[in-house]
Design goal:
By secondary structure, the chain is α+β, with helices and mostly antiparallel strands. Helix content is 32%, strand content 21%. A seven-stranded mixed β-sheet has the order 4-3-5-6-7-8-9, with helices on both faces. It has a five-stranded mixed β-sheet with strand order 11-10-12-14-13, sandwiched between helices.
């Protein structure tokens, strides 16, 4: 898939027609992808230009992607609220019925390095005073390198996939910790704490399975749906909740901020994973639906354990060495 793709046209309300929403969000992701690929090798794409409202480093390539989002939004007459990683909450038009939660590049570091593990993430929820992940009605994850995408909405069972060379979703049946192919998170997470908590699982599975660090929650979770991975684990937020005295350590590696999963990191991925049949919860095994889509505070940041089977999910929750 290349180009800007089809769109709904001026004045169309995507809430009235699921197919129109799909065209709208696919067009948005396509526009971002086109802009990012054009700028990927330009000087300055790796430079840190500042920090996002959540505190994560903002690279030059992030600015390109954010600008592409807003250019697409203002190019359509549909009134929407847009919450993005680097620009926060913005409004286009008056009295918008929908909130778009957009992470223009989830996986900026892989993207600036020319690696494949980066996506455009878009979730659409009805606008309200306190919209949550449970309120998401449409979701899209598009691979930046290939343009392949996963899409789902409340009106259609399961999920739709475009651009893959095999049927998707294709969840594995893995239940054995020693055989799992999984990814984990280190950005903003003290390495010592991570290895204390699940270093034994790395040792257990690195040879007979596979252990990966992709620096992208959406890419990792989407690989469960394509059948390439069995699990994804990001446990930093639970470790901090269990032991608030760890706050200085997390702030030390987060440039003075806590960098756990923000709502825009997982809003679309949670919706798609649940509809595809994966098991996805926080580190306590609780659903992620109450996560507020527009709140970046520490209390609204999340941990995540996702697995292709309930057995593997339970085994992971039991095997991590949580702080007591």
């Amino acid at each position: 898939m290349t180009g800007t793709g089809p769109d709904t046209g001026p004045g169309t309300d995507p809430g009235t027609e699921p197919a129109a929403v799909r065209r709208y969000v696919t067009g948005l992701a396509d526009a971002v992808r086109e802009a990012v690929l054009a700028a990927q090798n330009q000087a300055g794409s790796r430079l840190v230009r500042g920090h996002s409202p959540g505190g994560d480093a903002q690279f030059g390539l992030d600015e390109v992607a954010e600008a592409a989002v807003w250019k697409y939004i203002v190019g359509h007459d549909m009134p929407v609220a847009v919450y993005s990683e680097d620009r926060g909450l913005q409004y286009h038009g008056t009295d918008p019925a929908h909130l778009l939660v957009v992470d223009p590049i989830d996986g900026t570091r892989p993207a600036v390095a020319g690696l494949e593990s980066a996506t455009v993430s878009v979730a659409v929820a009805r606008m309200s005073q306190r919209p949550r992940i449970a309120d998401v009605e449409h979701a899209l994850l598009m691979e930046l390198r290939t343009g392949a995408y996963l899409y789902g909405d409340l009106a259609t069972p399961g999920i739709a996939a475009h651009g893959y060379d095999h049927p998707v979703p294709a969840l594995t049946g893995t239940t054995d910790l020693t055989r799992m192919f999984w990814s984990l998170e280190f950005n903003g997470h003290p390495a010592r704490l991570m290895t204390e908590a699940h270093g034994h699982l790395i040792d257990l599975s690195a040879n007979t399975g596979g252990v990966f660090v992709f620096n992208s929650a959406t890419w990792s979770i989407s690989r469960l749906l394509t059948g390439q991975l069995d699990a994804y684990v990001d446990i930093g937020n639970r470790l901090l909740r269990d032991d608030p005295a760890l706050l200085p350590e997390f702030e030390r590696v987060g440039n003075g901020r806590v960098l756990h999963l923000f709502p825009y990191d997982i809003a679309a991925a949670v919706f798609l994973a649940e509809r595809a049949g994966a098991v996805i919860t926080d580190g306590y095994g609780q659903p992620l639906g109450d996560t507020v889509l527009t709140d970046l505070s520490i209390t609204n940041q999340r941990s995540c354990v996702a697995a292709s089977t309930p057995e593997l999910h339970r085994a992971l929750l039991s095997a991590v060495r949580w702080k007591k």
